[in-house]
UniProtKB/TrEMBL annotation:
PANTHER family noted in UniProt: EMEI, RE42071P
Keyword Metal-binding among record annotations: no
Family: Belongs to the TMEM161 family.
Signal peptide from the UniProt entry: 1-22
Location within or outside the cell: Membrane
The protein's name: Transmembrane protein
UniProt cross-references to InterPro entries, sorted A to Z: Transmembrane_161A/B
GO CC, one annotated term: membrane
Amino acid sequence: MPNSSSLLLLLSSNLFLQSTLALSLSLLLHFIKIPALFLSGLFTYVHPDDVTPTNPNGVRAAIRRPCSTIDNSELKPRKKSKERFEFDENKAQIFRLKLNDSHLHTRIYFNDFCGAFNSVIVSCSCLLLHRFLAKSEESGVLKNGSFIPILLGFLGVCRVFVLIFRISFEKSASKLSEKHLSFVLGFLGFIVALAFVHGAVPKWVFDAHFETIHGFEKLFVAVLMGCISWFLYMPAVRIAHAFWLGTDQLRCNLSIISCGWFARLLLHANYLFMVLTSLLWVKPFADLLIDQNARVGHVRDLVGNVGMKLSEFSSFRRWCLLVSGLLQIVSLRSNVQMYLNEAVLCWYQRLHASKVPDLAYSRAKVFLHNHFVCLVVLQFFVPASMVLLFLGLSQVGGDFFTDFQGICSLLPCSLLDKEVALFLAWWVLFVWTIYTSATLALFRQGILYVS
């Protein structure tokens, strides 16, 4: 029978603390339903079908006839009719509905979002606890409790990757051209990733280090980076749409479409922080922030003694990744509301596009935005969760993990390397920023538009 000292040692061990935190959080999140509370109160819209038209003999939307039924007499120019067309305003009604728990449970992918949200919260909590616990590398991953945050971190990464893979193939959620373009960008991302992991990219361009991984691990990391480039295109396009509408770049001055000042501040802060954090791994920009002792040549002459030490700069980059990931989650509600408001904009444009509006397209768009709201929530949530999970794994990685053969036989040890995991967190944010910035630039030039 264990004595009091051994029992106290067991209760104070890292393994016990990690297990208690994971189990208690899982049980608590199962009953509290934080994902439902997170989305409750958002406004969605319903465009009712005109089942019983009040004027069956009135004007209806014209349908193009088959070419075989058109004779030459119909092609002659006709005089404009002086008859005034009347449009039934009842057909143009749109209703606003506040989402609650019962509504959310009827949306597809809501349960998947709940599972992913709870999994990421538990994983990040265990990774954060590991960061502050006293541990010894000589005691191994089991005794110091490192096995639990590593396992939960890998399970969280696998879960969000499976979800983003599933929703990328949802038939009606996006256009076929967007799916083809995302696949092409994923292949290009894989080619660029191969250049990164094999050292073909000059060190003075990007701060990337892959000297600790070899062989199959380099191919695994390149494939992972290519998949990230593939899956993040359509979510980044949606986030660009939300930013464009939320900051009222259209200058439509419609209160029902734009958001309040605080949500607009969050959208600007989120985007600017993404751009700043992405630049921290670009070597010329990073050299401007490093202390003179670490600088060379013209950089020293340009900025003098202004800058941070290398250790401080490394810590600053990690903090920026953390803040950027948290900002994306905090601004998730605003982005989702802008996605729902995009359907209202489409309805408004169709309503005022002509004397006799054809609202069939806007009715379908309102329905699809309402139907796929939880799918879009996942698209906004997954990139932020990947940034946080990879950042957390970079803080628990170490040489003693790669020497532990039991873990390396089950999990890819390349992700346990601190530099690789940290670079993957930055790669998610970098790809997300490139896609979003390119889409916003096309909006600004008028090549793309929100409708």
